[in-house]
Amino acid sequence: MARTLDDLPPRAALVEIARDFHARGWMAGTAGNLSAREDKQHFWITASGLPKGRLDEDDFLLVRIKDGHVVETHAPRVRPSAETAIHCVIYKLFPHAGACLHGHSVESNLAAARAKKGAKALRLPALEMIKGFDIWKQNPKADLPLFENHLDVVRIAHAIKARFDKSPPALSALLVRAHGPTVWGKDPQDAYNRFETLEFILRYMAQV
After folding, report:
1. How many Cβ atoms from other residues are within 10 Å of residue 116's Cβ?
2. How many domains would you assign to the chain?
3. DSSP-assigned states of every residue in 26-57
4. Domain range spanning residue 55?
5. How far apart are CA 157 and CA 100, in angstroms?
6. What CATH number does residue 120 fall under?
7. 192, 183, 174: which is closest to 14 by C-alpha?
8. What is the pLDDT of residues 26-85, one digit of tens each?
9. Rounded to 5 degrees, what are φ and ψ at 84?
């Protein structure tokens, strides 16, 4: 048994994450998408429209970062996730990122719904768990970038790129209203830990 997700090949690690997230209600039905780098130029991402609790390693496509082109598949008639454009932007903006995870949770949507109309960020409470994002300050003032949701996901990707080009986020995470969080890390285990940390914080925010 692998001790961490990083002991597994990228697709195998993503399968484990998908099953875990589905079981915890973070990827209900076919919602959500996960990716991990294969190398500096490519990443594996979940195929579109598949139940996330039943994925296997053939349910991922290899995508080229620079243009989002699919270069390898292992199953017939599969398409990359609709959020592929967002993953491409994250990997372009943050070359150190080795995995990017996107889910849909009730708590994240409740927390986002409490933000003022037009708000660009959510101020996170100064909980001990914020250290999961390498923020080592007493009573930190950490803001989670907040974006508007659009049916055209490419529009969301463009908004992320435009904002982060000007001002990189303090957290390796963002939240789309009425949609869900996207979190990235240096490898699958790091991204998983950070996603779990953020969900803990958002669950707290939704309940207070």
Report:
1. 7
2. 1
3. SS-TT--EEEEESSSSEEEEEBTT--GGG--G
4. 5-207
5. 14
6. 3.40.225.10
7. 192
8. 999 999 999 999 999 999 999 999 999 999 999 999 999 999 999 999 888 889 988 999
9. -55, -40
